[in-house]
C-alpha cells in the first residue's frame, strides 16, 4: 500500500469582528493554514487583508478573535512568525548583515546563519554595505532574508513586491518560492496581483467586506509555467468571484 502523507494544521485564525470606529473591517473571518502551504489573500483595498495579517503577526491585539499557531494561542509578537512588508524597512545606519541579524553588534552580524541567508538571496557580496547602496529589488531581498532569520515556520508577506518593476517582481517571486521550499516555510501572502497569487499559491482566499467570498485551489504541480491553462483557469475564476461581488 502506498504511504499516505497528511498535512498538519499550523495556523488557525478566527476573528468574529474587527472594527475601526464604526467601520467593520473583519466580519466572522476564519482561516486555517496547513504546514508547508502557500496561501494568498486577494481582494480590493479596504477588504481587511492587511488588518488580518497584522492580527496574525501580533501587531494588532484590539480584536475579539483568536490566533493559534502550532496548537498554542498567540497573544503578541512571536519569533515563530516572520513578517515582510511592502517596503523593506531597513535601518539605514546598519549594514545589510546587521539588518538581517536584527543587531548592530558586529559579532552578531558575522553570524554564519546571516551569511547563509544572504547567499540564498544572492547578496553575500554586499553584506557590509549600507541600505542606501541597494536597489529596490536588492533591499527587498534583504527583507526576505531578515524575515527568515529566526527560522519561523510561518512567514507573512504584505504586498512584498508591489514597489518593484515587473521583471524584478518575477525574479523575487521565484526566489521566495525556492527559499520557502528550502526552509519548509508556510507562507501567507497579501496581494492585489491575481497573477502572482495564482502562480505562487496552493490556495487563494478571495476577500470582500471583511469576509471570505470564496476559495480557489491551485492544482497545478510545481515547477509551474506562468502560461499554463490551469493557472489561466485559476486567474479567471478569481476574477469571476471578484466581479460577482462587484469588487471589480
UniProtKB/TrEMBL annotation:
Pfam families attached to this UniProt entry: ABC_tran
GO molecular function: ATP binding; ATP hydrolysis activity
InterPro entries the UniProt entry points to: AAA+_ATPase, ABC_transporter-like_ATP-bd, ABC_transporter-like_CS, ABC_transporter_ATP-bind, P-loop_NTPase
Keyword Oxidoreductase: no
PROSITE patterns: ABC_TRANSPORTER_1, ABC_TRANSPORTER_2
SUPFAM superfamilies with a match to the protein in the record: P-loop containing nucleoside triphosphate hydrolases
Keywords: ATP-binding, Cell membrane, Membrane, Nucleotide-binding, Transport
Domain called ABC transporter: residue spans: 8-234
Keyword flag Zinc: no
CDD domains, sorted: ABC_NrtD_SsuB_transporters (cd03293)
Family per record: Belongs to the ABC transporter superfamily.
PANTHER family: ALIPHATIC SULFONATES IMPORT ATP-BINDING PROTEIN SSUB 2, TAURINE IMPORT ATP-BINDING PROTEIN-RELATED
The protein, known as: Aliphatic sulfonates import ATP-binding protein ssuB 2
Species annotation: Methyloversatilis universalis (strain ATCC BAA-1314 / DSM 25237 / JCM 13912 / CCUG 52030 / FAM5)
Phylogenetic placement of the source organism: Bacteria, Pseudomonadati, Pseudomonadota, Betaproteobacteria, Nitrosomonadales
Amino acid at each position: 500500500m502506498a504511504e499516505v502523507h497528511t498535512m498538519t494544521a499550523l495556523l488557525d485564525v478566527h476573528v468574529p469582528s474587527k472594527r475601526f470606529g464604526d467601520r467593520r473591517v473583519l466580519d466572522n473571518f476564519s482561516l486555517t493554514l496547513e504546514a508547508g502551504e502557500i496561501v494568498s489573500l486577494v481582494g480590493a483595498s479596504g477588504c481587511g487583508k492587511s488588518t488580518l495579517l497584522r492580527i496574525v503577526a501580533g501587531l494588532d491585539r484590539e480584536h475579539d478573535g483568536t490566533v493559534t499557531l502550532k496548537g498554542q494561542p498567540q497573544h503578541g509578537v512571536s519569533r515563530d512568525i516572520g513578517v515582510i512588508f511592502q517596503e523593506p524597512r531597513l535601518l539605514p545606519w546598519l549594514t545589510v548583515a546587521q539588518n538581517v541579524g536584527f543587531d548592530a553588534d558586529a559579532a552578531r552580524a558575522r553570524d554564519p546563519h546571516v551569511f547563509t541567508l544572504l547567499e540564498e538571496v544572492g547578496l553575500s557580496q554586499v553584506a557590509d554595505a549600507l541600505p542606501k547602496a541597494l536597489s529596490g529589488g536588492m533591499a527587498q531581498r534583504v527583507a526576505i532574508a531578515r524575515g527568515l532569520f529566526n527560522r519561523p515556520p510561518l512567514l507573512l508577506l504584505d504586498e512584498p513586491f508591489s514597489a518593484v518593476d515587473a521583471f524584478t517582481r518575477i525574479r523575487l517571486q521565484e526566489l521566495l518560492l525556492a527559499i520557502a521550499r528550502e526552509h519548509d516555510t508556510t507562507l501567507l501572502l497579501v496581494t492585489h496581483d491575481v497573477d502572482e497569487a495564482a502562480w505562487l499559491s496552493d490556495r487563494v482566499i478571495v476577500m470582500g467586506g471583511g469576509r471570505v467570498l470564496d476559495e480557489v485551489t491551485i492544482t497545478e504541480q510545481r515547477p509551474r509555467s506562468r502560461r499554463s491553462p490551469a493557472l489561466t483557469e485559476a486567474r479567471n475564476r478569481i476574477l469571476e468571484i471578484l466581479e460577482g461581488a462587484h469588487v471589480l
